[in-house]
Amino acid sequence: MAQTLQRTPLYDRHVALGARMVPFAGWEMPVQYAGVIPEHRAVRTDAGVFDVSHMGELEVEGPRALELLQSLLSNDLSRIEPGQAQYTLLTNERGGIIDDLIAYRLDGFRYLLVVNASNREAAFRWLKEREISGSDVRDVSDVYALLAVQGPRAIERLGLPRAPHNTFAMAEVDGVEVMINRTGYTGEDGCELMCMADDAGRLWDGVLARGVVPCGLGARDTLRLEVCFPLHGNDISPDTDPISAGLGWACKLEKEFTGAAELRRIKEDGPKRKLVAFVMEEPAIPRQGMPIEGGGEVTSGTHSPMLEVGIGMGYVPAPMASPDTELTIDVRGKPRRARVVKKPIYKRED
Asked: Domain 272-341, CATH 2.40.30.110 — does that match?
């Protein structure tokens, strides 16, 4: 029997706007409205809004909440104050990535973790099973809605003051109380607005009335790939380690956390393979799973709306990972040339 797809509080608004709805991580989500390319370019040149209410929210509270999280997350949470956020990884005993997430320090004893929709249950279960006395892990995902407003004019259109990246504050936007998180998944300026689920429709309507373009999952994927943000399930997984994935910067290996010893060993020995970014040298669009000659594989691929060329990321043997290395990708049975480039693939020309 087919599983019923979940819907965000904004489902009816997406349908009313003519969005094409698709199944994604157990949810019925908008993949596009006007089209991936115009939505992508709106975010790169002005401002777009994404409904990301399918993301999971976990609250960890108690006098030993920090101690619990420090033992399970790769980054060093003691470095952030209330009002700040940090990108980090939830790792298993092998150093594999259960999820990549953002941790927000709400106050001295309370943290909010925003996890990927597809990993919400796995992340919650992993944390809950390892709770220590003086810590409490709760899944509060259904209480909140989340809108990502991204683009060079996003903050201006929302009428918000400037603020540093990876910080957050409570405020009101169009009469709705929101947590304004200076984070995002597009490589552009902007924020993610968290509100109570019941207020999501009012907030969405207000943001659109300010001239922000509604965008779907299609543009979210092309935007994050242009700036080489990894996608869990594609580029990283419980079977891939952060060192090979280029996420060693989010691992504070001087502290003890699950899998840290294995990651220290991989770092010392040098990873056997590395996640690289590449640009096609011949007309072709790379896709996940396509073989790279010499023992590599494409993990993400698309057509770049800004560069108008095929781009992607994939794992290759470490000796093939240097920028300007030529790769040969099997694109539907045809060998096509590509070139390893420095991350990010796309960079704004100011």
From this structure: yes
